[in-house]
C-alpha cells in the first residue's frame, strides 16, 4: 500500500499530462511525504492507488424517515436493510408505519416523513390537485395477474363482478390504486362501479371484516390474499390486473420537492441502495427471506405468495397510462405529467 502510494505520488508530481515517474530531490521527497495522506482523497486521475476512485462525498442527512405499509410491495426495503445496502451508501432508514399510500403524502408535506412508499394514483392525484409538490424517487411494484384480487367469503352472495354493484368493498385507501383497479376491471367486465360503496380500512383488518360481514368484498394484496384463502377459504371475484390495467404500475417511492432540493445526495444514496435491492427482489427466495419478519408471514405461506414485479427504474410512459386510466374512470380531471415529477 505505502509503496503503491509512493509510486503514485511520484507520478503525480511529474508531468501532469503523461504521469511519468521523475527523479526527485530530497526537498521534493519531503514534500511528497507530507502530502501523501491528502492525495488519497483529493487527487483524481493518473491511476491513484491502482485505479481506486475517490471516496463518495457524504450525504446531507444521514437518517431518512420512510413511510411504509407492511405489504409485499416493500420487500426490497427490508432486503436493503438486511444486506446493509443503505449503510453502504451512508444512510440509515427509520421506518414509519402508514395505512396506505395516500396517508404518507401529508407526512411529506408537514415534514414528518422524508420519503414515503405509496401508490402511483395517490401521488399523481396529489400533484395534479396541488396538494403536494412531489418528486418520484423510485419504482416499487408492478402488477401481474392473480396478485391484486377482489375477494369474498365462500358463502357470500357476491359471485361475479356484476354482483359487486351496490355492495361494500374494502380498500385500504379511497381514491387510490386499489379503487382505480376495481373500477377499471369492473368497467372492462361491463359492470357498474359507480354504485360500489368503497369502504376504507387497513389491509390487516379486511379478513375479519369479511367474516363479520361488515363488507361484502375486499381488494386484497399479498400476503393477505394467501392468508385469507388458507384461513377463511376466501375466493376471488375479480382479478383487477387485466385489460387496460395489465402490467399496471402499482406503487413507488416519492419525496417532497423541498426535501429533494435540500438533500440531493441523501435522496440519490437512498435510491441507489433501494434500486440494488429491487434487482435482488427478482429472486423470489430473497422476498421470502424477509416477509416472514416485517409482514409476519408464516413460512408455509411465504413459499406460495403471488408476487408482482419489482422494477429497477421508473417507466414514465406506463405512468402516463395510469393518468389516462384515472381520467377514464372519473378519478382525475386535472392534467399531470409524470415526467416533470422525476428528480
UniProtKB/TrEMBL annotation:
Gene3D superfamilies: Periplasmic binding protein-like II
Keywords attached to this entry: Signal
Main location: periplasm
Highest taxon above the source species: Bacteria
Location in the cell: Periplasm
Similarity-based family: Belongs to the bacterial solute-binding protein SsuA/TauA family.
Protein name: ABC-type nitrate/sulfonate/bicarbonate transport system, periplasmic component
Organism: Kibdelosporangium persicum
Amino acid at each position: 500500500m505505502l509503496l503503491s502510494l509512493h509510486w503514485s505520488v511520484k507520478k503525480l508530481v511529474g508531468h501532469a499530462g503523461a504521469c511519468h515517474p521523475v527523479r526527485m530531490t530530497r526537498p521534493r521527497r519531503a514534500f511528497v511525504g507530507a502530502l501523501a495522506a491528502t492525495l488519497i482523497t483529493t487527487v483524481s486521475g493518473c491511476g491513484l492507488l491502482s485505479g481506486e476512485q475517490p471516496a463518495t462525498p457524504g450525504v446531507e442527512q444521514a437518517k431518512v424517515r420512510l413511510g411504509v405499509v407492511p405489504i409485499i410491495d416493500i420487500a426490497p426495503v427490508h432486503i436493503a436493510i438486511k444486506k446493509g445496502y443503505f449503510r453502504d451508501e451512508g444512510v440509515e432508514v427509520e421506518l414509519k408505519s402508514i395505512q396506505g399510500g395516500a396517508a404518507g403524502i401529508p407526512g411529506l408535506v408537514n415534514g414528518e416523513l422524508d420519503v414515503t412508499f405509496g401508490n402511483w394514483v395517490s401521488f399523481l392525484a396529489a400533484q395534479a390537485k396541488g396538494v403536494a409538490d412531489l418528486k418520484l424517487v423510485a419504482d416499487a411494484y408492478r402488477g401481474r395477474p392473480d396478485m391484486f384480487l377482489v375477494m369474498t367469503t365462500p358463502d357470500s352472495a357476491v359471485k361475479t363482478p356484476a354482483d359487486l354493484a351496490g355492495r361494500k368493498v374494502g380498500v385500504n385507501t379511497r381514491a387510490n390504486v386499489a379503487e382505480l383497479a376495481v373500477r377499471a376491471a369492473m368497467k372492462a367486465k361491463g359492470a357498474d362501479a359507480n354504485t360500489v360503496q368503497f369502504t376504507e380500512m387497513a389491509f390487516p383488518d379486511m379478513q375479519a371484516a369479511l367474516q363479520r360481514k361488515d363488507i361484502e368484498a375486499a381488494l386484497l394484496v399479498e400476503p393477505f390474499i394467501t392468508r385469507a384463502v388458507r384461513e377463511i377459504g376466501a375466493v376471488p371475484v375479480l382479478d383487477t390486473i387485466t385489460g387496460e390495467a395489465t402490467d399496471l404500475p402499482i406503487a413507488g417511492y416519492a419525496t417532497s420537492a423541498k426535501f429533494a432540493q435540500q438533500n440531493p445526495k441523501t435522496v440519490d444514496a437512498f435510491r441507489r441502495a433501494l434500486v440494488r435491492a429491487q434487482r435482488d427482489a427478482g429472486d423470489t427466495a430473497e422476498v421470502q427471506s424477509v416477509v416472514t419478519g416485517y409482514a409476519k408471514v408464516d413460512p408455509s405461506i411465504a413459499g406460495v405468495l403471488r408476487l408482482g414485479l419489482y422494477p429497477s427504474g421508473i417507466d414514465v410512459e406506463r405512468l402516463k397510462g395510469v393518468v389516462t386510466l384515472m381520467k377514464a374512470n372519473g378519478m382525475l380531471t386535472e392534467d399531470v405529467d409524470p415526467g416533470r415529477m422525476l428528480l
